[in-house]
Please model this.
Amino acid sequence: MREFDLVIVGGGPAGMAAAVAARTKGLENILILERDSELGGILNQCIHNGFGLHTFKEELTGPEYAERYAEQVEAMEIPVETDTMVLDISKDKTVTILSRKRGVEQIQAKAVILAMGCRERPRGALNIPGYRPQGVYTAGTAQKLVNCEGYVPGKEVVILGSGDIGLIMARRMTLEGAKVRAVVELMPYSSGLKRNIVQCLDDYGIPLMLSHTVVDIKGKEKLEGVTVAAVDSTNTPIEGSEEYFPCDTLLLSCGLIPENELSRSCGVDIDPRTNGPLVDEGLETSIDGVFACGNVLHVHDLVDFVSEESARAGESAVDYIRRGCTPDSTAAIKVIPQNGVRYTVPSQIHTADLLGDVHIRFRVTGVFKDCAIVIKAGDTELVRRKNRILVPSEMLDIIIKEEKLAAVTEDITVAIEEV
Model:
């Protein structure tokens, strides 16, 4: 059985950033496992720009961003095994893999980092009535068809969901000569970044229909059109508000789900609010020596934040290995989301043995204006940050100084308050 200090599952931006950080901190025996034939993950099909402004201080496309990290991995001589599927991870960190070259094999790790990314919510999870005709795609599938395969799936398009991939594909399909009739969003607000709404919809005159959804799909063999209806405050379609859009393509951009089947099978505790692992301040899961980062932990809005978070996971894994692969025995303080905060990462903090400042990342449950983010330990206020507006599409990051947390013994709450 081959042995490694650190095995990283996933060679996308999260896995590469974790590996680079671990090697920078002096760890030598590292292995990256990637199921695709090359590093980069989803970035390889994201040919639009807007990446790297935080990490590299310049605007890059997705493949350029991935290449920057792939070059670092190669320069640091970090071993990578592509075309390799991870089948199982045991609690003693035995990793079972399947590859074309080596077949089924087990490798032993001292620490494991989960960096498998996320997947799109499929039609089957959306409860849309109708047949299953040709012409219904997830937005990410359409993105790969257009950007990687050179195939445009249709000419008359409706997009359900205003996630960032859906907004970007509205612009991409328009540039390829298709007519995007509308972007339909169930919620009264968009789930995508404001800049994408402006650059991908407003600049091309594509209507955004908030508080609407697709209630019927017409066509048995091939898509003929969709019926869109307004919804009330309970998301129930309003009778009489139906509008029919003839189209040959329906793109679904209805949210991303962390890819955690492997995490569940190895026994990691999952947060039902994020569908990602529950982690502490070092991004360690409920299994000692197993860490999680990037979109497998919670869905990010910017890849730069994925890289920063994953670097912390890599550093934390090195600290775990160097202390003899022993669990942190100090008591953990819970981090509890309240009053408009949907979740927090981390969900607990070991305040007695911190190695630096702590990032608390979270999303809000709705649109809040003229408010403040308040973080407390019992009655003691640790942080208060005023905001003009908060929206669910933007992930928030608040840093709490190590010295403020050192004496904390009560649970920490993160809440939204009106100003």
